[in-house]
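Sorry, explain these tokens?

___
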Amino acid sequence: MSYFTELKILSFERCAFAHSLATTDYHYNLQNEGYGVYGQAPLGGGILEIGFVEQNPVILSNDDGEILIEENSIFIIPPKSRFSVRSLTPDLHRHTTAEFLIRCQSRRVEEFQPAMGKTVTLPLIIPPCPATTEICSLIRAIARAKTTQSERSYFEECANFMLLIHKLSAAVQAAGQTGDVSPGNRRYCERAKSYISENIDRRLTVSDVANAVGVSKNYLTNVFSGSEGIPLMEYINRSKLSYMLELIRRYGYTLIQAGEHVGFTDANYVSRIFKRYYGMTLTEYRRNELFRESQDSIKDENNL
């Protein structure tokens, strides 16, 4: 699932809806293409929803996969989005959100790009950080004003919206520079790595690891790549190859024996992925290792 949307805001129409909600077994289908129940949209119009989860995380899912919105995380749902939304557990769930009607242009992008001019690049999720506390307070104030006052001027609503976008853009850039990863996502990655280590002798798939961690395959794949900087399947293969090298180097295992010990039964497959990840064949690798060992021995003798 794409985590970033490049959103060019052409004009602000109005704040259509905002509230704080507390309910159990929270679930619904979200579709914010056009103005929906708020009337007809002008060309390029849509609903930009911005909010935060206070209690009981939420899962957004569509054909691309799933995203978990943890407690105290901000979510930004750009126009032309469709999601199935549900709370992580059927227990009490709380969130505060505001929906803004805007005219815009948007496209999904794979990597974060700093905002330029009126183009703002937003993720679907901003994990908790010092900047998000102030943003949550602003969203709560917008929701409180919308539910307690019958009329608000366009100027007030526009000013609050622009302030919110400014703070969100700054928070996104800070997250992009620091590489922040939410504590929950980091825990998923650590659980995945522990499971791989404990089951290094088995044939492992991404689905096996995701099931053990307790999240969907697509979600864990996205989270792991973003947190560790390496695809999950590549991490599994590299872990197995590293363990194989220890077996070969320390205990004299053959390539076939070492491969079978980590769940690789096809020697040709092992040779291919070894060369792909290490840039050389196992024979070349062992030759280089022997050369380095001999050089180290010469250095040790000269130092005596």
Remarks:
- Strands lie at 4-24, 27-31, 45-55, 58-62, 65-69, 74-77, 82-87, 92-109, 119-123, 125-126.
